[in-house]
Design brief:
With 361 residues, the chain is α/β, with parallel strands linked by helices. It is 32% helix and 18% strand.
């Protein structure tokens, strides 16, 4: 029924988590005819590790409007929080939900955040990090696809050219450099951590139809996770993303991702984005690069996660970006688009995947 996000910037030095959360909650409710008293429950996504304290959401309940309400925390990307809320509404008797995701990675060491997810005896001590794990995956993928590291520039160019026209993304002075981070990946191949928050208002059909003459519907969702141990995963594909897609398609009554007009993808590297494109069936294995070379307009019209990755909120931002285009919000009209597929990822080196289908009549 409503959604809002803050600007996504490298660092909010003058605003705290509660300021960002409060801003999006007020904005998401505005214009819906709903008040905070009408919200039955709140689901929020964030990370105690990034926030620097245990049960950190308890400090933000007032800003979330969650006082004296049922509230749950999802320690995963915000798209999982959205599917949690959808399931609670479908199960009944709850009617209206507020879903919030937020992040301030500028206040943390993002490398330690990712490495803290690793098993501490065999994986963490050898120095495996998110950057190096992503590079190992990239080496294998590029070899299988018979691509060079330079070929990946078309993916980053696709992302940043769209981000520079997205008023919600503050680029903080320009694009990342081609400085080597972990062979074969350079800085522009990695997603850029940013601060930000996003809020979504969901309602059951009987409420939605009273508020909006043409609401946007969540028609399906699915999620799956790959092996916890990085070395046990498929090195050049993301089968968990494909499994998540199946769940969403089955629920939505669709045959393939090609049935959707828009696709918003979360990824922490250029290679990760290519692998998700292929897992969603938008391209043959190892041929995802062709979609970017052809300038496919369906993929990440917002710019995606590479230019702006508000860790723990990225997937819900993708949902918001798809929603405002389907809802034809001013400045975000998406031609005749009536459906969208939204992807979120989480876990070390994109272990977990969630896919949500959206449609407007």
């Amino acid at each position: 029924m409503g959604s809002a996000q803050t600007s996504l910037v490298g660092a909010y030095t003058e605003q705290q988590h509660i300021d960002l959360i409060d801003k999006v909650v007020v904005a998401a409710l505005k214009g819906t005819g709903l008040r905070i008293e009408d919200v039955d429950f709140v689901i929020d996504s964030g990370s105690d590790f990034l926030d620097g304290r245990s049960i950190s959401n308890c400090g933000f309940l007032g800003a979330m409007g969650a006082n004296h309400k049922e509230e749950s925390r999802v320690e995963e990307d915000g798209l999982w929080a959205l599917t949690y809320a959808v399931n609670k509404i479908v199960a009944g008797p709850k009617s209206v939900a507020l879903v919030i995701a937020y992040s301030k990675p500028s206040e943390s060491d993002i490398d330690n955040f990712w490495s803290g997810m690793l098993e501490p005896f065999l994986q963490r001590p050898v120095g495996l990090s998110h950057s190096t794990a992503s590079a190992l995956t990239a080496q294998r993928y590029l070899a299988s696809a018979e691509l060079s590291p330079e070929d990946l520039r078309v993916v980053s160019e696709h992302a940043w050219s769209r981000a520079e026209t997205n008023p919600a993304i503050v680029t903080d002075g320009g694009r990342p450099s081609d400085e080597s981070i972990a062979t074969p990946l350079v800085a522009s191949d990695y997603s850029r951590p940013v601060d930000g928050a996003v809020a979504i208002v969901l309602a059951v059909d009987t409420v939605a139809e009273k508020i909006s003459p043409n609401p946007v519907w969540v028609t399906g969702h699915g999620s799956a996770m790959d092996s916890y141990f990085f070395t046990a995963r498929d090195g050049d594909a993301m089968p968990a993303a494909a499994h998540a897609l199946k769940g969403a398609l089955n629920m939505a009554g669709k045959d393939s991702a090609d049935d959707f007009d828009l696709v918003e993808i979360s990824a922490t590297t250029t290679v990760g984005e290519l692998m998700v494109v292929e897992a969603l069936g938008l391209a043959e294995p190892h041929r995802g690069i062709e979609l970017y070379r052809s300038g496919d307009e369906r993929i990440n019209p917002s710019g995606g996660a590479l230019p702006a990755d508000p860790v723990m909120a990225t997937g819900l931002v993708r949902f918001h970006e798809a929603l405002i285009r389907l809802a034809r919000r001013e400045g975000h009209e998406a031609n005749e688009a009536k459906s969208a597929l939204v992807h979120g990822t989480g876990g070390f080196a994109m272990q977990n995947h969630c896919v949500v289908a959206l449609e407007v009549a």
